[in-house]
Amino acid sequence: MALVRSEFRKVTTTKVLLWLTIATVAFSALNVVLLVFLTPRAMDASTDVNFLLDPAYVTNILGAAGSSSIFILILGIIGMTGEYRHMTITSTFLVTPKRPRVLIAKGIAYALLGAALGLIAFASSFVVTLIALSREAHAPIDAIIALQILGGVVLAFAIYAIVGVSVGALIRIQVAAVVGALVWVLIFEALITVFVDWIGKWLPGGALDAVLQTTNVTGRGGEDILPTAAGVIVLIGYAVLFGTLASLTTLRRDIT
Amino acid sequence: MFGKVQAVSDLSFKVQPGRVTGFLGPNGSGKTTTLRCLLGLVQPTSGSARVGEHDYRELSHPATVVGAALEASGFHPGRTARGHLQVITDAAALPAARADEVLALVGLTEAAGRKVGGFSLGMRQRLALAAALVGDPGVLILDEPANGLDPEGIAWLRSFLRARAQEGRTVLVSSHVLSEVQQTVDDVVIISKGKLIQTGTLDELTGTGISKVRVRTPKAEVLRLALTAVTEHDIESSIEIVSENEILVIGIEAAKIGHIALREHVELHELTPVGNDLEALFLDLTAGGNPGGAA
Fold first, then answer.
1. Which keywords describe this protein according to UniProt (chain B) (predicted)?
2. Are strands B11-15 and B3-7 parallel, antiparallel or unpaired?
3. Cβ contact, residue pair A95, B56, below 8 Å
4. Which of A160, A243, B157, B162 has the fewest CB atoms within 10 Å, counting from its CB?
5. A134 part of contact set with chain B, CB < 8 Å
């Protein structure tokens, strides 16, 4: 637990957590605004369709917080690669020479941070949803579904943060890891899904969608995702896979 | 307690507690690699590096056994000095208040709440020393701690390391400039090209040379003749005439020169042992280690 506390100290004594929290809150809110106001509505002269009357669409709005998951991935990546970038890894490994312990402590700390940010992201999007819908005709907000979405976001963000830490341990160069992860999640997975549609749901972004049970991240449809429980297992699998690979390779490298 | 190092190429030496040991060699001679092997940061290709009886990586509370200051660059620029140390106290399961104690010890109390990004090189060196002391370890391993320090800083470091050794700690200080640590160290370990060149006390090292004394006197010629009577019987001693009123006496101690001068009623204006040129001796010992490396 001392190591987990140290990881919390590391992340709270720099600015990166603050900025990514702001980004998460803002992006979650922004997504709600876009979903509510840039959608066909009955009062719009050009259409007689009103998406806001569709319960599935309202569910989608409530799940907007899930789109902030990318910031959680980046938080985990920076948490690990920052140690190499600023060479604080030297003092980290001097205090804790058994290196996999550092990785595990970071995983635990960032999972908790991810969960907290999931809660914050959901709160942000939920409050903005209530405000945005207050003057609109809309399908009712189902409290049970809202709670399910909250649970999904918290769980997804917690696991995604660990994935970020593991990726950062494997690709120690910060810029490469962040850019690589963004390109993978935002471009590569969407592309590969177009060509080989069955593979998408097994990839990290697809598994994340399964945990979130929304289509926000990579634009996949509801039928193309795994059941939530399977998504959780696949996503944890990726975190463990990357972390284990790192422990066997990059984590063992000489610190010079 | 002592630290024993085996690394680079069959490099083996002992470091005594209560003394400051200089670990010397030109740049690229393997000092840093040796220290990093010892601290579990670099994996030796064969053999092992141990601190006392244990592999560093097997220590359950390494911060309380060995404190290391390896380089001044290992700080997050946005973190405060106190924050940097508390990251370590947390990981080592030490009270967070220990951070302020060690900051006081290195004279950084006033900078405790400032971000390390704005620190001078000297302040970073002090912070690195503070980090090494957090666990109150019996062994201190410092890699080039005098780098980037001004003369005042070096003087401070000297008394600081002396005090730590007097507390009974084992202090190992690496440097590529002997003169930098000459007045600090008790023992020296000199390596070159990853091999041990010489080990022993500093006195033993300096004892291998011959004394030189600079003498200024208006009666240089009279004194020279008087001293020649002595040098004639000793092939290791000689007299160099530097100028009209200055001579350099090699192989005769200052006290004896003074005595002879008094006997001959020669007025002296200066009688200064110039000592051995340790730096030259160091360069001689490590010659061929790394061309041009011993700056």
1. ATP-binding, Nucleotide-binding, Transport
2. antiparallel
3. no
4. B162
5. no
Q: What is the CATH number of domain B3-207?
A: 3.40.50.300
Q: Which residues belong to CATH 3.30.70.100 in chain B?
A: 212-273
- Asked if the Cβ–Cβ distance from A88 to B59 is below 8 Å, we say no
Contact A209, A220 (CB under 8 A): yes
Judged against a pLDDT cut of 70, whether residue B7 lies above it is answered with no
The third-level CATH classification (topology) of the domain covering B212-273 is: Alpha-Beta Plaits (3.30.70)
3-state SS record for B183-216: CCCCEEEEEECCEEEEEEEHHHHHHCCCCEEEEE
Cα dist. B259→A154, B162, B254, B267, B269 in Å? 89, 35, 9, 12, 14
pLDDT tier at B284 (50, 70, 90 boundaries)? confident
Task: Write down the pLDDT at residue B240.
Answer: 82
Chain A residue numbers touching B43 (CB-CB < 8 A): 252, 254
Chain A residues touching B90 at Cβ < 8 A: 2-3, 5-6, 9
Q: Which residue ranges does chain B devote to CATH 3.40.50.300?
A: 3-207
E-strand stretches of chain B: 3-7, 11-15, 20-24, 50-51, 54-55, 66-69, 139-143, 170-175, 187-192, 195-201, 212-216, 238-243, 246-250, 270-273
| Predicted confidence (pLDDT) per residue in B115-154, tens digit | 999 999 899 999 999 999 999 999 999 999 988 788 888 8
Number of domains in chain A: 1
Q: Give, for all 256 residues of chain A, the pLDDT tens digit.
A: 899 999 999 999 999 999 999 999 999 999 999 988 887 776 666 667 788 888 888 888 988 999 899 999 999 999 999 999 999 999 999 999 999 999 999 999 999 999 999 999 999 999 999 999 888 888 888 888 899 999 999 999 999 999 999 999 999 999 999 999 999 998 998 888 888 878 888 999 889 988 987 644 444 455 578 888 999 999 999 999 999 999 999 999 998 8
Instruction: Tally Cβ neighbours within 10 Å of residue A147.
Output: 11
Of A208, A226, A241, residue with least CA distance to A71: A208
- Which residues span the domain enclosing A70? 2-252
The CA R_g of chain A, rounded to the nearest whole Å, is 19
Give B247: exposed, middle or buried? Use CB within 10 Å, 0-12, 13-18, 19+: buried
CA-closest candidate to residue B217, choices B159, B261, B173:
B261
Residues 90-109, chain A, touching B (beta carbon < 8 A)? 90-98
CA B6, CA B44: separation in Å to the nearest integer? Answer: 9
Contacts of B243 (CB under 8 A, 6+ apart): none
- Which helix or strand (DSSP H or E) is residue A59 part of? helix A55-62
Write the residue in A10, A13, A91 that is nearest to B74 by C-beta. A91
State if pTM tops 0.90. no
Taking alpha carbons only, the member of A115, A93, A123, A138 closest to residue A25 is: A123
CA-nearest residue of chain A to B94? A2
